[in-house]
Specification:
Layout (H helix, E strand, L loop, with lengths): L2 E2 L11 H8 L3 H10 L7 E5 L5 H9 L4 E6 L2 H13 L5 E5 L2 H6 L10 E7 L7 H14 E12 L5 H17 L4 H5 L10 E2 L2 E2 L2 E2 L6 H10 L4 E8 L2 E7 L1
Helix pairs in contact: 2-3, 6-9
The protein binds S-adenosylmethionine.
The site of S-adenosylmethionine has 27 residues, from helix 3, strand 3 and helix 5.
Length: 244
């Protein structure tokens, strides 16, 4: 029985692209905001937790001279992304099967280098503990060129219980408006499947470990980012990051 890691979400990788769009309000708009904040003339870009390669694809489209190095600890996700990116005709993408928590702690073990123009991530870093998020932001800051940027799209810890209820309701309304039900989408989740071995934690990641937006902006400032910003926010999802 195959093991499915935190962040893979669905039991079958082939369900991810359609399923995540049914689950999350404005997924494409959110990834487009990350890509839009990366300078189009970037040459070296690091992506953390690439999944099926949807953000990679948008970044490769936006940055015609960029080489994208994408990390993901799931061999299934890396393989799926590789096939998609190859079929789209890009030869500027390398997928590396690796845990980005391990990269934060022991960068010397990795052959990814530094001096990146940009680092991007979507829906992945919230699987780390807050301590590891802070360490990862430090590592990202050190791996960027001066003037380089980091943009992360992630769910945030709601600002209050009332807002948590609102964000939850908005998510359910979104799913219903996609012509399906929360129950139907949930039936495809790895956590509800008998056909896979669902790992509640793997490597440095566990199930959702949300932090407030404010706490994460503070971590970025402590990691030496000169500009810290939130270019996009939609209820409980935010694109945030900064420039070193
Ligand atoms: C929800 S998916 C998002 C994928 C993609 N970025 C997107 O937005 O569609 C999260 C991805 O992060 C990966 N992931 C989670 N924790 C990780 C870690 N510690 N190291 C590497 N990959 C990780 C999972 O394998 C999964 O592919």
């Amino acid at each position: 029985m195959s093991q499915v890691f935190p962040g893979e979400v669905f039991a079958q990788t082939t369900d991810f692209d359609a399923g995540i769009r049914q689950l999350l309000p404005n997924y494409d708009q959110m990834l487009a905001a990350v890509a839009r904040c990366v300078p189009a003339n970037s040459r070296r870009i690091l992506e953390l937790g690439c999944g099926t390669g949807e953000l990679s694809h948008k970044i490769l489209d936006r940055c015609p001279a960029a080489e994208v190095i994408a990390l993901d600890y799931s061999p299934r996700m890396i393989e799926f992304a590789r096939t998609k990116i190859n079929q789209a005709g890009y030869q500027r993408w390398s997928g590396i099967e690796a845990d980005f928590g391990e990269w934060a702690n022991n960068p010397e073990k990795f052959d990814v280098g530094t001096e990146f123009d940009a680092c991007v991530s979507s829906l992945a870093i919230h699987h780390l503990s807050d301590e590891m998020k802070a360490k990862l932001f430090q590592r990202i800051g050190k791996s960027l060129k001066s003037g380089g940027c980091f943009w992360n799209a992630d769910p945030i810890l709601p600002e209050s219980p009332v807002l948590a209820e609102i964000y939850k309701a908005v998510g359910e309304e979104w799913t219903k408006n996609q012509g399906t039900t929360i129950q139907e989408v949930r039936s495809r989740l790895a956590s509800n499947s008998d056909s896979v071995d669902y790992a509640t934690s793997y490597g440095y990641s566990s199930q959702d470990q949300l932090a407030t937006l404010d706490a994460q902006l503070q971590m970025l400032m402590e990691a030496g980012f000169n500009t810290v910003a939130v270019p996009w926010k939609c209820y409980g999802l935010a694109v945030f990051g900064g420039i070193v």
